[in-house]
Records
---
Amino acid sequence: MPTVFITGANRGLGLEFARQYAQDGWRVLATCRDPIRADALSALGPAVTVYPLDVSDFAAVAALGRELGAEAIDVMIANAGVMLNSSMSPAAIDTDAWMRSFQVNTMAPLACAGALLGSVARSNERKMIAIGSLVGSIGAATQGGIYTYRSSKAALNSVWRSFALDHPEVIAAVLSPGRMRTDMIRNETSGWDALPPPEKTASNLRILIARLTQADSGGFFHHNGKTLPW
Ligand SMILES: NC(=O)c1ccc[n+]([C@@H]2O[C@H](COP(=O)([O-])OP(=O)(O)OC[C@H]3O[C@@H](n4cnc5c(N)ncnc54)[C@H](OP(=O)(O)O)[C@@H]3O)[C@@H](O)[C@H]2O)c1
């Protein structure tokens, strides 16, 4: 039975990944900040084991990596993310929110990758996935603003690419889910109701993850499988 590890699995895209992998017969190691309040995740059944984890607590990330050290983890998905103070103006940026964005969106995925490297490398699939964003692409940018979130996701691309080059024993890729109907952008988007649900996006991303090969390691891909510019 293959195993997937997911951060931020209590809602949004992470919850959908957990639900779909469990339905598909995978063992799911699901993490979230507050398991007591993660009712939807806990209801997924015995295939899902829930671990408390604030991904910005890097000591806790390392400790969980040691706890899971004997496991073989086929797919690790660094999904947890925040969009804080997504300012359109440099003067309005809250520097604490910017730092926090880097902790959660950039540094935490790399901390998870480091902590779980041995477990993923000894698995059959050997895949390490970071959930990025199209706005993290410098080459594809057609609009400005969203400085805090954008820069943290651009930096995620950079660290994930470096990690892939350093670790050919795994297949490491950044995947962009596209805009989805989740809490993250509920208050930002006028056409929120018309956006695809996370169910559809998780399904597309799971197909893409299953198709990734060693030749894709170090890449940045849209949910439809197309390569994105850095
Ligand atoms: N929604 C979009 O349109 C969109 C577009 C492009 C990329 N993305 C990316 O997709 C991923 C999933 O986002 P989503 O849309 O599902 O957002 P969401 O519904 O807001 O869910 C975010 C998840 O991240 C968790 N999280 C935040 N900070 C955390 C921390 N310090 N430690 C542990 N977990 C933490 C949240 O947990 P709590 O419940 O404890 O807060 C929640 O489970 C993110 O990386 C996001 O940047 C989303």
Note: The chain has one domain: 3-222.
---
Amino acid sequence: MRIEIVVNGDRYVKEVMADLSLLDFLREVLGLTGTKWGCLTGDCGACTVLVDGEPVVSCLQLLRQVEGRDVTTIEGVEHSGELDEVQAAFVANGGAQCGFCTPGMIMSTEALLRANRSPSESQIREALSGNLCRCTGYSKIIDAVLQAAAERA
Ligand code: FES
Ligand code: FES
């Protein structure tokens, strides 16, 4: 089938299999490998991207369901080669160790901060509850989100 979609501000028109997932499209067709291939069951959040600004686990999303919509991946977060506030705060606070969960964490954080410029710790934990991390114990991630929110406020 023919699909038209906008990813990180670029419009693509592609012929794809009807059952292709958004995750496989991003990684295998567009080569945007920042979005991670984790559980593939919707449980880990490593594949989180934004669709029209809302966080979505791309492993469970069929590409055809996001036809014509606006997708943002971790590659679309930076500003002209510079880390954005959320990315920089993760680095500064040790919020990334192995880094496997980090793109999904950052995308969920970006969605949170668009909706709530000054989230409480409990609101941050709720917003990131679908993103699993095996490394950091979460407290450094929470610190990173609080710092990013303060810098954007
Ligand atoms: S890979 Fe999609 S939620 Fe785990
Ligand atoms: S930094 Fe390793 S899984 Fe989160």
Note: Residues 2-76 form a domain with the Ubiquitin-like (UB roll) fold (CATH 3.10.20.30).
